[in-house]
Automatic annotation (TrEMBL):
Biological process according to GO: chromosome segregation
Pfam families, alphabetized: ParB_N
InterPro entries: Chromosome_partition/occlusion, ParB/Sulfiredoxin_sf, ParB_N
Name of protein: ParB-like N-terminal domain-containing protein
Residue span, ParB-like N-terminal domain: 123-167
Organism whose genome encodes this protein: marine sediment metagenome
Signal peptide range: none
Length: 436
């Protein structure tokens, strides 16, 4: 399809470099530029560009990445899968032609709660804007091989160009790109913070990358590469979780404000909350990422799952009772499910209460406390079974509860990252703590 009067060519036809006047200065500060005072963006074939797999924002949903793990090799196949699955999940046809023309997308469609469907509508809306008005801000890339580049910033814009070219807008086969020497994590964070607020898992990824960048080399500190932990299409949490333990991988002295400025996080207390998300189970991490849950959404969802697993109403309130916090149970009076916190720093772990579910499965509720009066209270789900019972995922606990017909069935093998619920406290550093 050639250009007509209602479309703006995104690049100069003869492939000459495009002047972009100070387009990134507001985000990254002033950089070295030619004597003209203008930055230069060069049109680059979109087929010569690939994603940065470590990028905090996951534009392509995990279900689609699992189907097409190397999606940057053939984005057209990936986009077709995404379109088909979005239609299935949405329950009605999605016209890409109408979407790229800027009409045919209703408010209900754009605001659907399904993250996969909403993400596809968002990508169509961006592509429609680029088709009509051109690209206001070039992407940033790093030369990877002789004829290949990796995206530093702008993956959504790059995918929008692919969506246009796969639907006959051939003039979008090249995208304006500014070439830099290497990926700058802080510039990447600045763009993410300014263009669209990161939330939940995206922000946890961003935080982890910046902490790694600050700590590498300190006392010989190194971190494994992304490929060491993550295979194509699989969950990426393990890579970022290298810095989950703030006691071992703390932010260097004097660098806290730099972290806050780069991420847009309001306070160091909030930094601890986002770092805590690095210790989520892979399943919860993927679910939260695909559905764009905020940090608060994640806590609420996990709380509901834990309460449901131990036979408690999800709306059970937290109240003050004689100086201690109590979770008031409104379930069957025959079920012991009241949890009372006891303030003590005599040991790292102390059993506060034992619970019997309606099916008679024993669960221990524990809290974590620290020395020096710094008390971090939480709810741990643990199978009762000796002096040092093993910790289990919430999904395993639910399965145990469901095994009423076969009470002698072997319990699932314990896992490292037990779910932890800390409710009603501003400091969530130990949320979902990995327990040995």
């Amino acid at each position: 399809m050639s250009y007509s009067d209602d479309k703006v060519n995104p690049i100069i036809d003869n492939d000459e470099e495009l002047p972009v006047e100070d387009v990134d200065e507001a985000l990254y500060g002033k950089e070295d530029v030619p004597d003209s005072g203008r930055m230069l963006a060069k049109p680059i074939a979109i087929q010569a560009i690939r994603s940065d797999l470590r990028q905090p924002r996951r534009v392509v949903p995990s279900e689609i990445r699992a189907l097409v793990p190397d999606y940057w090799e053939d984005p057209e196949i990936m986009l077709n899968h995404w379109h088909q699955l979005a239609e299935q999940r949405h329950g009605k046809p999605i016209s890409i032609h109408e979407g790229l023309m800027g009409y045919g997308v209703g408010e209900d469609d754009a605001r659907t709660e399904d993250g996969l469907v909403r993400g596809f509508y968002d990508l169509m809306a961006l592509a429609a804007s680029i088709r009509a008005d051109g690209l206001n801000n070039p992407i940033t890339v790093v030369k990877h091989k002789i004829k290949e580049f990796i995206i530093e910033t702008g993956e959504r814009r790059w995918l929008a160009y692919h969506l246009l070219t796969t639907h006959s807008y051939s003039d979008f086969a090249k995208i304006p790109a500014r070439i830099v020497d290497e990926i700058d994590l802080w510039r990447q964070a600045g763009e993410n913070a300014n263009r669209q607020d990161l939330i939940g898992i995206d922000l946890a990824r961003q935080l982890a990358l910046l902490i790694m960048d600050l700590r590498v080399g300190i006392g010989g500190q190194t971190y494994y590469d992304f490929d060491f932990f993550v295979k194509f299409g699989e969950c990426d949490r393990a890579f970022y979780a290298q810095v989950a333990n703030g006691n071992i991988h703390g932010i260097p002295r004097g660098q806290g404000q730099k972290i806050l400025n780069a991420t847009g996080i309001a306070s160091m207390d909030s930094v601890r909350k986002y770092r805590a998300l690095l210790s989520l189970s892979d399943e919860v991490w993927q679910m939260a990422d695909d559905n764009n849950w905020t940090e608060g959404d994640i806590r609420r969802e996990v709380k509901a799952a834990i309460l449901a697993a131990i036979g408690k109403p999800t709306a059970a309130p937290i109240v003050e009772e004689d100086g201690a916090n109590a979770l008031i149970d409104e379930a069957d009076d025959n079920v012991e499910t009241t949890i009372t916190w006891v303030n003590t720093d005599e040991s790292n772990f102390q059993i506060d209460d034992r619970v019997k579910t309606p099916q008679g499965i024993g669960i221990i509720l524990k809290r974590l406390s620290r020395s020096k009066g710094n008390d971090h209270r939480g709810l741990y789900i643990q199978l009762d079974g000796g002096s040092y019972p093993a910790m289990y995922h919430i999904s395993d606990v639910e399965m145990m509860i469901s095994q009423v017909a076969a009470p002698d069935a072997p319990a699932p093998a314990p896992v490292d990252d037990a779910l932890v619920l800390i409710d009603g406290y501003p400091d969530l550093e130990e949320l979902f703590k990995i327990l040995a």
